[in-house]
User: Fold this.
Amino acid sequence: MKPAPFDYLRPQTVEEAVRLLATTPDAKVLAGGQTLGPMLNLRLAQPAVLVDIGRIAELAAVTDDKDAVMIGATVTHAAIEDGRTPDPTGGFLPQVARGIAYRAVRTRGTIGGSLAHADPAADWLSALTALGAEIAIAGVRSSRRVPLSAFVRGAMETELGADELITGIRIRKLSSRARFGYHKICRKTGEFAEAIGVVVDDPERAYFCAVAGATGGRPLVMETRAAPGSGSVTVEDARQLLKGAHFTGDDYELTLHAAALHRAYQRAYAA
Amino acid sequence: MTAGQGIGARLLRKEDDRYMRGRGQYVGDIRLPGMQEVAFLRSPLAHARIRAIQIPAGIRDRVFIAEDLSGVAPIRADTSLPGFKSSVQPALATGKVRHVGELIAMCVAPTRAEAEDLVAEIDVDFEPLPAVHDMLAARQPGAPLVHEHWGDNLYLTTAIDVDFEAAVAKAAKSVTRELRTARQAMCPLEGRGVIASWNTRLDQLIVTSSTQQPHIVRTGLAECLGLDEGRVRVVAPDVGGGFGYKGILLPEEVALSWATRKLGVPLRWLEDRRENLIAGADCREHHYILTAYADADGRLLALDCEATVDSGAYSAYPFSACLEAGQIGSILPGLYDFPHYRCRTHSVATNKPPILPYRGVARTGVCFALEVTLDALARELGIEPKDLRFKSLVRPEQMPFDNIAKRHFDSGDYPEALRQAIEEIGFAEVRERQRRAEPDGRRIGIGFAMYAEQAGHGTSVYAAWGIPFVPGYEQCQARFTPDGGLELRIGAHSHGQGLETTLSQVAHSILGVPHERIKLVHGDTAETPYSTGTWGSRCMIMSGGAVAAACDELADRILRIAAGLLQARREDVRIEGGDVVGPSGRMAVAEVARTWYRRPQDLPGDLNPGGLELTGGYKAKRDTGTFSYATHAAVVAVDPETGEVEILDYAIVEDGGVLVNPMIVDGQVYGGVAQGIGTALYEEMRYDGQGQPLASTLSDYILPGPTEVPDVRILHMETPSPYTRFGQKGIGEGGAIAPPAAITNAINDALKDLGAELLVSPITPRRIVEAIGSARQRAAAA
Assistant:
């Protein structure tokens, strides 16, 4: 399959990009193109105009403001995997990045593009939700910051307006005492996840979050706020947590997600 | 002979120089002046009547439908087997569509994207019909009919009964299992592709196609288009994988061939992955109800089988709709010697793409059904599966052996292949490890599977089938060039087998010509002798035999010339290290060739005037085929919580007779195993209630990747075939046959204490978790 005809625009600044989005009907933002490319080829997406943000320098920048790091929207998974960007998490982000799809996809795919697409099975959605990340959004009238948990409405549905652009992801720094665990279950290396479990625990910041991802909708944040004692969360506990978070799925899917969550806990608290 | 570069050498593949540098030439690399691209409108429905096709007037001259294709006959692939019902497959659908992806209209434009734009403008008014996409449902009375005039959905039913009833009374134990294998799509790296053009000077159709069988395509095209075969030339350039997927006359080839003559410009169609998956999910789908009987000593006494194969909507040309089901009866006995047997098979029509033979052709499903059932029988008997096999395998002293289904095994030592596999996989250590629990909670299992791969079978086998071709003698045209190079022309085609290297090794063994001076010409009906092509692991036997026959004859002519030049007698000269050596001197073979062409005034008298250019032909001493065989041994770890399977170890003991190039054989086996792992654990085209395929990209249709294929150890035995030129056997398919059975047996071994047993491939995590769940429920209810 080859794409239906479209026009192509390549703004140089965020300001120009959002102006184009606001004034061009039926425009679609192109970042790394790792999802949009196949969708165009399959004619599942047939936008009139593609706005390519790949040449906007400010979107590729990473800034450190002492408490947090702002990762530009077009930073690639590979850049994070390779440690070419400052890592506010002490190793968590590169670990997640390393497991995204295949290296070829990671070389072009961007963190902002992944979040804008909001595929429930994508790694960043779950991992960054567990980190309590915020999304920086630019529009023609104003810019804003939205917690990721509020940004995602459902499967492939977000708060992002048609005339808005994700500019970056703000992630608070984890302390050296922080623990994290990430477990993904997928049919083979590089496939989309069938189940994701994430646990982030930073006692210094009194921050704890456990998330179940790849659920078919937005990531589920577990009700529990407190960090458990080491190894004290069983598979059955994980099942109960999922049920408490209104997990929907058949028994096999519940089993798989409980296993992913349980194993994320185990990894977070492994000696 | 030059030591070390002939038969048996691990010579690097000559063709890899261009492949590895990206200099191969595939259909997608070829551009002809004025060439237009084709996109097809394909049926979105599995079964429907076409009421009307609306084509906007502005594009009508670039769109072609069935009524435009005047004088084009449909594709028919009948067999002469009694009771076979014939299907008629038009190049473009007429009246009715019978599977999703069937061709309806052909759109022509300067680029593929524009051709797809045209497709989007066509509107088809369908009357949807109930679709039948499940082969068992299709056998039920009252099922929707794929071909109404048949009255049912059966292409063919076959039956074999060897004194079966007598077995039941004698049996001490029996097990019955219902087994199923999924429908798969073959996914060669390069999809199909066709360029059709009309040469006005030669008044000839030239079709360049990514095919395994250029001569068969030529015959089929001539028949469909009503052209003399002399007016059809088929060229197969580099072909990026075939596996059976390209052993077919394509409706696309027929449609483009008609249209290029009509439009007067070259036309190209390149299949994309979506077309490959949707319209080309065409293999492997079997269902079995199999009972295995054992006597009190644990010897196999009988097999009783009812097998059904989903053959899809049409009988594909040339192998027909029955190639898989029709062979099950004769393959099912496997490597075993037992006295009683019954097998019925059904080739069933459904609203799915026509079945094609995929690497292993029926054997992968049969091996799965038989070997998995034998393991179940061993568990029932309370003995090791390996011991059940040892008791019933055909023994080496019985060779050659005619089995219960009249298959003639040529040579081999089957028990030895099992013994070596047990040793190589470390059977005792694995059993010991199983007694200790794994620290991570996973369960370890070990499984074996054995099979024989019939290869290079010829006239006597296929005459009984009566499909559109019957393989006979195979030829090679060989000639020396004036500068002493050697050209070999064969009608089969390489789509990854390495024939440019292995046939060069055969020629080198006989003539001593250096490899860089030997050129294989193949893949063009205008330049090569007729051949039924590359299929059935036949090339090393048939083309290898033909090359040897031609080179033997060339050697004789070289020696007669050289004897005259060296003033020796014919019987006193021989070829050695690229030279002709006589009692009182030697001269290079190349120099003999130069003399023949460039200095005929120096030639002795009384020579064969045919010169150094000839056709040699070959047929095996016995044409029922060679039987290479192997034991595959797998060790797996199964996570009973998530159903994830890891292959911890995989070893193969294989006997392909005399190996022409062991490195290439290993490569064939590795690639086959990767595909077998796909069948075992990943690949499945599922359909919804309307017969819609549920995978249309490789994110839905899961193929194993490098991380899913373990390191495989291959041990070779080399028992020569008594019937072939060098004792070689065909080995191209075997790697893909046994992995589903071996891996399933290992998984079932791992789960036996939980009472769970997997009988459906692919074995997905969900199927494992659900099997364990139902075993627990059964245990709780008991």
User: Anything to note?
Assistant: Residues 434 and 778 of chain B are 24 Å apart (CA to CA). Chain B has a mean pLDDT of 96. The first strand of chain B starts at residue 36 and ends at 42. The radius of gyration of chain B is 28 Å.
